[in-house]
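Board notes (copied after class):
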Amino acid sequence: MTTSNDGTVLNPSSILLDTSTVGEKTVTYTATDRWGKETTINRKIIVRPDLYKNTFKIFSDVNEEEMISESDSTENKKNLLFEIGFDTVTNKYRVFNRKSDRISTDNSSEEKFYINILGPDKSIKEFISLTGNDRGTSPKLDKLNEVNYEIGDIIRIYRSDFDAIEFVGNIENSEPNKPFEDNTERLDIMKNTGFIVSEDGLTVKYNNSPTITDTNGELQDRIVSKNTVLNLLEGINFNDEEDGNISDKKFINISINGEVLLFDSLNKPVEYKFNELGTYKIDYTVYDSWGRGTLKTVNITVEAKVRDNEINVYKTNNDLAFKIKFDTTNSKFILTDESNFVNDISSKANKTTDEVINESDESGDFKMIVRDIRGDVKYSVILNGDQEHDVNELKKIHNKDFSKYDTISLYSNNANGIKITGSVINKDNNGNKDYSNGFVNIENYSLVRFKITD
């Protein structure tokens, strides 16, 4: 007797059929008697994928009070509603062993089960949802029998009762005995686990959340000045373990204080003008191709634009003496870099009065008067070169409060002794006046007052 497997003649001692590949195979048996007469028989053998062994068993809600007793096991108390498996002959999903019982007798309007099948390209092939009032014979399940399965399909399945679902067959990378901290963890794993279809069975894939980061890592809260325009996408990265960089706007939402911000593309700036004082809540939401989302919130605190201004005071030799900054978070004047000026005063402490007077132009007289909205003087600082006097004068404004609509008058015996950085609005023409290079003439000090505004 000789045999052939798809035309290959085999020795009788090695009649082994290769079942490593899926498909239909033909085995031919030929027998020859001693008179030379032959008889041939063909036998078809279909090698099925191991996938047919995999099923999802769905049970009705388990009554915890009746689930365990002294004589009955948990398994005996479960009521099978239906099974979902794979017809490896027709290459379709199938629903079988269906019972007419309801999924649940409680909360009948709540979703109790769903199956979401994604194709290899992550597009939705089928989604079926059942409430507690649905039965195992629900027509909703019928359409699953018409869906072709493909290698690479991803099956996401949910059952509200964790004890009312079982997975049968070869499932790689599964951890059936993994202890769970609580039901929240179990729910997270169930909703974010996919079963990937292959000829050898199912492979479990846990879908981690997509990430939202900026160039420095985690998104950081920010403080900006009023009327600042920011590109809300600048430096923001949306990534996913499976999908890589997410750049399609349909997967990304941005909202400001709860209102969705519309934008055309991630390749264009998404600019927003922060024109009101206060805190803006910026929510970034990104979804991956499985539909899992991540939310990150950034708080943008908008403070008065005066925070951009600094009053820089110089000596007549153009060395910086000190700076007066506006702490708009706490509404206080803050002196910085004043040590250069104080040290300069200290160097004169051992000199005679005449020597100090002769050198007084090196430090430069400085005056600053702060008035409230009524015009009453709040602080008056006058520096004259005397160490003890000037140090005490500086203390009058350092870390002291200012208010909206306070005015500031400045004076120096040097036209370039005071420079103001940041924009200064010219009330007369609604434009900006540049004081970053000084006041040009000493007489100009007495011509202006600077009002603190937003």
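Comment from the instructor: The chain has four domains: 2-47, 50-206, 211-303, 306-451. The mean pLDDT is 84.
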